[in-house]
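Hi R.,

As promised, here are both runs. First protein below:
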Amino acid sequence: MEQFAKETLPVSLEAEMRHSYLDYAMSVIVGRALPDVRDGLKPVHRRVLFAMHEANNVWNRPYVKCARVVGDVLGKYHPHGDSATYEALVRMVQDFSLRYPLIDGQGNFGSVDGDAPAAYRYTECRLEKITAEMLADIDKETVDFVPNYDGKELEPTVLPTRIPNLLINGSSGIAVGMATNIPPHNLSEIVAACLALLDKPDTTVDELIEHVPAPDFPTAGIIYGTEGVREGYRTGRGRVLIRARTHLEEIDKGGRQAIIVDEIPYQVNKATLLTRIGELVREKKLEGISDLRDESDKSGMRVVIELKRGEVAEIILNNLFKLTQLQDSFGMNMVALVDGQPCVLNLRQFLEFFIQHRREIV
């Protein structure tokens, strides 16, 4: 008992709760949920890419087991669960999640139907070629390094990326009291906007929108209306309406038609979508459909919705947009960490911070 402190300090439960919760909230915001505005990565993604770079697991080398990568990341940099690390790795492989995947995977890494990826002992990976541009010059004292959790290794605080990763691949995350949802974009359009801002530093957001008219989602689809997009670019918050891309085909000589779905909105689970359409048909909330099947294969997506004879395809398609996720919205909430502080940024600010980062690196 003599080892305990001689005096005790009275602490208000309310004050302690407020202080401790704020510490926890900031830890989640800075350490897990929000991306850095400079390289567009959260700590777990940065650690995975850096560990693969250190192991020379690059695009022109043979694939290695994902289990080895996960082990390196856990042992050296990320003292958390293996599932969180593997999920981060898997997302960087999926071409339906990222516009420009950062990791090249071999094996089952999940699907747009919501299928789970194979366990990491079965899958293999290596860095994509584009990721070399994110890690270029990292060994030339271009970025700061800090000790890892046990002080035995050093890890970068940010990557010296040559590409504006946060805008081209987007990001999403839920922190304590805030969230982020940044849509992916076309690399050529973002580079054109960067060049315009370099040539004319007082370029307005509306002028930048001429170079970046809208997001570019990996699952494609059709963006319906631009006002929500423009509002998102101007203020950091907006709403993008996305519709599936469809076309009509005649399926017999009697004039029966089928609606063919070629592309679906971003982050929509195709299997769940088909289940929902089937439920609506059974409940007779959706009339005129005689058959529904998924003919998607490795060459692309193809969902066939056969119509009954005499039905007007345009009317049924409008009902599908109204009642299902063939039409969906993406809420733009463009929050990122600037000097460790969460900020809502517009399009111009994202580009300015990237250009500033590159100037510091060079």
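And here is the second one, sequence first, then its structure tokens:
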Amino acid sequence: MSTPVKPKRLPNHVYISEGSVDHYTQSTLKGHYSLLPAEIFWRDRQQSLYDAGYVLRPRYWPNWRPSWLGTNLRPTFCEDSIVLMDHQVMDARRRDNNELVAIKKFRKDTQEFNISQYLNSLRGHPENRSVPVLRVFDDPYDPKLALMVMPYLRPCNDPPFLSVGEAIDFVNQTLEGLAFMHRHNIAHRDIAVENIMMDAKSMYPEGHHPVRLHYTPDAIYEVTPLPRTGRTIHYYYIDFGLACHFPAGASHFVVGDVGRDTEVPELSSTVPYDAFKVDIYALGNLYAKEFEEKYNNMQFLVPLIVRMKQRQPSARPTADELLAQWRNIRDSLNKSSFKWRLAPRSEAAIERVINGTVAVAWEGINHLKKYVT
């Protein structure tokens, strides 16, 4: 006769005292953890999405009852207490393989919707770095809306970059992607670190929570990612809400004091400017802020950044010219430097030596593991 397996006890921080149970129960019954108005949109579509092959988190199921009621569990560590952060996008899992995806609602009459689908029609090109579209279907209630299914992505700089080679890969992919868009007469017009995301599944083999990114899928335990190095990471441009698709041969000049990067010098709501040159400046500014200004050993980016951030738009090269320059820079680098740890400018000299030594040691251990395992 087998011995019954006792349920695993959760960490102590997940539990509340008996005296707190009533407090949280009353708070819950008063609506403190109820669905937000924007979440109700997705709750109402739960069954339609399920029928289409996508499962929402229990919080969005009909007749949801908070899982912590009647227990001594702290609501914060119950997965169904976690609210949606971006109300335009819902996470879901595919019924057939449990893969995490993102579902975004779009108005069908928007440029964003049309550009996203156009770029996806060019998916076979290796330099296409626009977010893939897996499926599009009509909203079940609003004929003006469509629901677009995409891979689940996380911020491109979370977790932080660790090595020079990781930064080089990011520059490779994002410059290729920009050149590809411009060749197809598309200007993004809102390039910023928030609008470049990554498919990081290989860094999180056990997954992570889609909203509470630094926790396991059950939102209880902190999760430690694997490094980018040695894994395939895909970076994608997202959010084409300000993008323009120009007819062949048409002017690229637009107006609009818009976009996340407010440092682009020519932005104006009245004076026309070249949308392609804005993309160039914004991406160069991103490289400067994320790499060259943060780390001591990214100076090789300076010649590229200087050309991209020329104050006079006409002095900035095209994306294809920059891609050619970048490839020359990259190919001139010693390949052994790709493994070097990114050294923060804020780091003291002794700290830099210690951290560099530790990084080399870990690299040796990881290299040895390849032969032992």
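A quick note on the second one: The longest strand covers residues 100-107. Let me know what you think.

Best,
J.
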